[in-house]
Amino acid sequence: MFLSGLLLALSARVSPCAVTVPEGGADKLVVGAFNIQVFGLTKAGNTVVMNNIKKIMLAYDVILIQEVRDKSGKSMQKLLTLLNSNSDVKFAYSASARLGRTSSKEQYVYYYKTDKVKLIRTALYNDTSDLFEREPYSVLIEVARTTGGPLRMALTGVHIKPSDAVGELDAMTAVYTDAKAFFNTENVVIMGDMNADCSYVTATERKKLRLFTDTETFWSLIKDSEDTTTAASSCTYDRIIVAGAELKSHVVAFDTEHFGTEFGLTPKEVKSVSDHYPVWVTLSIAVSN
User: Fold this and answer.
1) DSSP E strands, the chain
2) Closest-CA residue to 63 (of 25, 16, 111, 19)
3) CB 157 within 8 Å of CB 136
4) What is the pLDDT at residue 88?
């Protein structure tokens, strides 16, 4: 069950198409998830790295940032200030509590454009059985449409523990059920660094997980052949999974943003940002003026 809450809104009736980078606009909503490896005061103090992070994040209307490790909270605020500098759009953020069983705790942070996304509620999964190293954190948001009233959607973010990836991923179906009930919506996006590949989750193990096999309920957008890491190995750790018939029908495009190629960065510059690439989905919407 969730403890007090938030989620998301979208729409359209368009078939997914091949797009290599997220493309926004007034009629689209770009949703992403990005594990910014050990995002804390050291990384936030690096001007070059932060400017590259800003370039990446400006393309998103709402993006889940993972692996925020800074008990002072200054890093996430510094990133917000940078996003809002010299920009026609304004971001806000919603952060979870610091999570983890050890002293090395992390936060989930959703950054979103305030002219497009309205934040309604937030919710941290009530993990009474201690199934997760970092309990999933969800937000409920809505987006205005020209007809039919605002469209709402739940975004559920998770950073799965590598050594217990199969167990935590199996428990995500219960998280999904609770999100639907708590936020009173069928529209749910589950996303984040799920460590759902290579040595952490084998192909055989993945076939037993409902998130990837129950295609009546879940639509896994990022395919097993995608490389979502900046390392030499090729692993599909990061995922976006859509649930809800209405939401599925609004998906326009989805992919992994290989920002090194996009922005002409060297391998060293890429790895200074993160060991992960962002994953994203674009949904078609009709935004009222």
Assistant:
1) 2-3, 28-39, 62-68, 91-95, 107-113, 118-125, 137-143, 151-157, 188-193, 218-220, 238-243, 251-256, 279-284
2) 111
3) yes
4) 87
The whole-number average pLDDT for the span 158-173 is 98
Task: Report the residue count for the chain.
Answer: 289
pTM: 0.92
- Cα–Cα distance between 118 and 266 in angstroms, integer? 37
> What single-letter amino acid sits at 181?
A
106 is annotated as an active-site residue: yes
pLDDT in tens, 6-47: 333 333 333 444 456 888 888 899 999 999 999 999 999 999
Concerning whether 258 is annotated as a catalytic residue, the answer is no
* Annotated catalytic residue within 159, 250, 258, 276: 159
**Ordered structural domains, the chain, with CATH:** 2-284 (3.60.10.10)
Q: Of the listed 67, 106, 226, 257, which one is catalytic?
A: 106
